[in-house]
Write a structure and sequence with these properties.
Elements (H helix, E strand, L loop, with lengths): L1 H36 L6 H33 L2
Helix pairs in contact: 1-2
């Protein structure tokens, strides 16, 4: 029974972080497409894309770390 509860916890945490990753990915791609299709000066476009990519990398790293921490806490540290 304890194993089942652990699996359910890990699954719930995994789904939570996958939703966060999905939303961040959709926002990032949408913003990059919006910037590329805008009439902004070309000089600002790479800078904006770089900032958005850094944001996406931070969100991805945080979500990946959260999933890894959850798995390690529930399975490795027994």
């Amino acid at each position: 029974m304890k194993k089942l509860v652990k699996w359910i916890k890990v699954l719930a945490v995994g789904i939570f972080y996958l939703v966060i990753l999905g939303v961040a990915l959709v926002l990032t791609v949408g913003l990059i497409i919006g910037i590329l299709s805008s009439e902004m000066r070309f000089f600002f476009k790479p800078t904006m894309i770089l900032l958005i990519s850094i944001y996406a990398a931070i969100v991805f790293a945080a979500a990946w770390g959260g999933m890894r921490k959850s798995i390690n806490h529930n399975f490795v540290a027994e």
